[in-house]
Write a structure and sequence with these properties.
mainly alpha, 0% strand
Length: 114
């Protein structure tokens, strides 16, 4: 971890995925994903939009119906110990991708095949 409390590719590139450092990183990712899930599904925001416009904005629909399921699946993968492993090919997802997309479920090779 660097001094400002955030991980970097360099700080993660040489750690084992079975090490205490990896477990700390995964816990940090869990917190990031939870924050995003809570923000995307904030009831007050939805109520405000419904009162103002009678419907949710397209972006709010996207966050709740498309993004939130990925966040939930990433949390499930953290819980069952498969976080950071591509759900299609079973290879490790590079830490750089996980830093950019905390709830990444697949490596870029498999993502680009879709």
């Amino acid at each position: 971890m660097n001094p400002n409390g955030k991980y970097t590719i360099d700080s993660l590139s040489n750690i084992s995925r079975h090490s205490p450092e990896w477990k700390e990183f995964v816990q940090w990712q869990h917190e990031r994903i939870m924050e995003r899930l809570e923000r995307y599904n904030r009831v007050a925001t939805a109520k405000e939009q419904l009162e103002e416009t009678g419907d949710l904005t397209p972006y709010q629909h996207y966050k709740t119906s498309t993004v939130s399921p990925f966040l939930i699946e990433a949390l499930e993968r953290i819980q069952n110990g498969t976080y950071g492993i591509c759900k299609y090919c079973g290879k490790d997802i590079p830490v750089g991708r996980l830093l950019l997309v905390a709830p990444a479920l697949q490596c870029m090779v498999c993502k680009n095949r879709k």
